[in-house]
Model the fold of this input.
Amino acid sequence: MSSVDSKLYQYAVSTAKEAVALDSQGKYRQAINKYQRAAEILMQFMKYNKNPQMRMLCQKNIEEYVDRAKILKSQLGGPRSARLSRRPGVSGGDDKSKAEAGVSSEEQELIDMISGTIVTESPNVKWNDIAGLENVKQAVREAIVLPIAKPELFTGARRPWSGILLFGPPGCGKTLLAKAAATECNATFFSASSADLLSKWLGESEKLISSLFKVARLKAPSLIFMDEIDSVATKRGEGSESGGERRVKTQLLSEIQGLKSTHDKILLVLGATNRPWDIDNAMLSRFEKRVHVPLPDLKARAGIFKIHTEGVDSALSNEDYVELAVRSEGYSGRDIANVCREVIMLPVRELDMSGLLEDSNKEVNVRDINLKDFKKTLKKVKPMTHPALLKQYNDWAEEFGEV
Ligand SMILES: Nc1ncnc2c1ncn2[C@@H]1O[C@H](COP(=O)(O)OP(=O)(O)OP(=O)(O)O)[C@@H](O)[C@H]1O
Ligand SMILES: [Mg+2]
Done:
């Protein structure tokens, strides 16, 4: 196992332990969340770990956690509106009297159904946490933030795009942008990883999707973020698509199609993918606005270095940051974040290796990070995006994109 692998696995184990502890203390709701989280982490882990025995073990554990969460859920029943609290002044629309009286049992059932797989908390990422990408930020503001904040401007022919797709190389800020948009626009935010929606362990994917859209409609204005949309929207008939997957896709298509007919309440779907060419045409046509999120340019790279070394004692000048930006051409934001993480650890590692951290009572001085640390690390941590792949994004953007 690589160290990343083993960290992920340990994280899953510790989350599962927390779940079991909460379970035995009778804190069932929290336990459900933790069981589901542990299962999700294991699923992530399985994406990268190819060891058959390890995979079997994980699969077994995932099933156990999901089963336990299901049992707890069915035993709990009862109201759980805390997590998806009703927005003041937004009525249900479909059934006004019920909505005003609180959450109906039918709604409650839907909410129960989507909670766990779908995160609804505001993510608290600010525009300033994202370096560069000025055009992209503007496009996202126009397509998402403004229609929700000022719906009166988007009437008649000036209707908002119901589906927006962010595409581009891995690690360049698509997920970050979606989160910043959600924080900014003050809508009810639903975030679903498409891989989770499809997960055969959680089952009931079609019901989950239809519940998701129903609740989003009830809680409008809403923003539904579907990350890694390619995994649920691959071209039809390709690969090893099962009947279940096809049904999920059809369901999702019809839900997004249905959005266009609800004029009065704003409900937007934001998809993100690093494999836009895998998305089936029918689905692609639902995403009317497609925004290319490219590799960071020079200025953005300098900004990313700054953001990811914030709060750490540093001997770097502004010119040094520009030099780093020059040296990191071809790096994604994630690559740069990895470089920074590595550099930040260097002074601590040095202290550790010289044995200075052994005495816990002794105060230690951690030295500043410097340009040399970065130069050394940049030689070690190489960019992950292959130039040929970049061309593929540019070609696709030219044919299908907008920004
Ligand atoms: N423009 C940026 N400014 C600051 N940090 C960035 C930027 N782009 C990427 N990062 C860093 O890289 C990480 C990965 O970014 P993010 O998850 O948004 O990528 P993504 O485009 O969604 O990638 P993927 O296609 O793999 O899902 C972020 O958590 C952040 O630390
Ligand atoms: Mg992402």
In short: The pocket of magnesium ion (ligand 2) is lined by residues 174-175, 227, 272 (CB under 6 Å). The chain is about 55% helix and 5% strand. Residues 78-101 have pLDDT under 50 and may be disordered.
